[in-house]
Specification:
Number of strands: 10
Distance between the termini: 47 Å
Structural class: alpha/beta
Oligomer: single chain
CATH topology of the largest domain: Rossmann fold
Helix content: 40-55%
CATH class of the largest domain: Alpha Beta
Number of domains: 2
CATH architecture of the largest domain: 3-Layer(aba) Sandwich
Shape: globular
Bound molecules: pyridoxal-5'-phosphate
Length: 327
């Protein structure tokens, strides 16, 4: 299989406990009268507090190490899941990590910031500036560290890059194999769409495998067209990495749903807020309230309208660390 061979020659470091489990969501299914509803436990990827970015970091840090980099610069908001996972992965890999945040250093570190402190990571707090200005600072930091003789690597665009999305190209291969081994009727995947890295990897991998699944992306921020445009930028980067013909129109090969995003990124809807309580009370599994709560609120609504198909699988993307700052 050409895709697997191409992935095998990419630089990669092992970080995650993979494959993550696929389990039945019995209570959720029963409550909404749906059969064979599953969860893919990417909250259990095994580094730091776990989550989707561990898969991306396997390829991103793989590239950094193969370029002999010694310092990783990663930028994000205060409660960035990526920053904490990158810091955890760097600890395991023996790389120095510097996190750069747009936000004011709080008196008391909570959630992911507490974890960053336990990791003893060097953190730069830039105050209330835009994410564009924050990213510019990260690039300038790279130049100044280079001048000091270090070999820094900046994780671009919140890891939503071709290399980052390789994590979810591989995840589809993993899921197809698991579904065959478990012999379960898992047919469709429901995942969050933030910047579109998870989405791009899933959609691209699924297409190259001959569409073993229906992919449904629930946007947590952008409207449909804006999210598609972000996803297509990543497709271009994946094409550059893999050089495998890929000429599909995004809307023809997946379902982008923007009905559940509410007003903005990080702004709850009544249903998503309710889900942060309801889901752990139903299944004993915690979710944070930016990404996963909106996916599950969407799945719940589809189920209530009898539009959630049999064999649907919720992809839990983690983000557990941030939950402790959200309440
Ligand atoms: C927990 C969690 N889920 C989902 C996502 C969305 O991923 P993407 O930005 O690749 O769409 C993120 C991104 O930061 C995340 O932290």
């Amino acid at each position: 299989m050409i895709l697997i061979e191409k992935i095998e020659i990419l630089p990669r470091i092992k970080l995650g406990c993979l494959p993550t489990p696929i389990e039945s969501l019995q209570n959720f299914g029963k409550k909404f009268g749906c059969n064979n509803i599953y969860i893919k436990r990417d909250d259990l990827t095994g580094i730091g507090p776990g989550g989707n970015k561990v898969r991306s970091l396997e390829f991103i840090l793989g590239e950094a190490v193969s370029n002999n980099c010694d310092t990783i610069i990663v930028a994000g908001p205060l409660q960035s899941n990526l920053c904490t996972l990158a810091a955890s992965a760097c600890a395991k890999t023996g790389l120095k990590c510097i996190t750069v945040h747009n936000g004011v250093k709080p008196d008391r570190a909570e959630g992911n910031l507490l974890l960053n402190n336990l990791l003893n990571v060097e953190s730069h707090y830039l105050g209330n500036i835009s994410s564009k200005e924050r990213n510019k600072y990260a690039d300038e930091l790279k130049v100044s560290l280079k001048a000091k003789g270090l070999s820094p690597y900046v994780i671009e665009n919140g890891a939503t890059t071709g290399m980052g999305a390789m994590g979810y190209v591989s995840a589809v291969i993993e899921m197809e194999k698991q579904v065959q081994e478990l012999d379960i009727p898992l047919k469709s995947i429901y995942a969050p769409g933030g910047n579109g890295g998870v989405a791009a990897g899933l959609i691209y991998g699924n297409a190259l495998l001959g569409f073993p699944f229906d992919i449904n992306i629930i946007s947590v921020e952008y409207d449909k067209n804006a999210l598609i445009s972000e996803i297509e930028k990543v497709f271009d980067q994946l094409n550059e990495i893999l050089h495998i013909p890929f000429n599909y129109k995004t809307e023809e090969i997946c379902n982008i749903i923007d009905d559940y995003r509410g007003e903005d990124w990080g702004v709850n809807t009544i249903e998503s807020e309710r889900m942060v309580h309801a889901f752990p009370q139903m299944e004993g599994i915690f979710i944070e309230n930016i990404y996963n709560s909106k996916v599950l609120a969407g799945m719940e609504d589809l189920a209530k309208q009898s539009k959630l198909p049999e064999g649907a699988c919720y992809l839990h993307t983690g983000g557990f660390g941030s939950l402790f700052s959200q309440y």
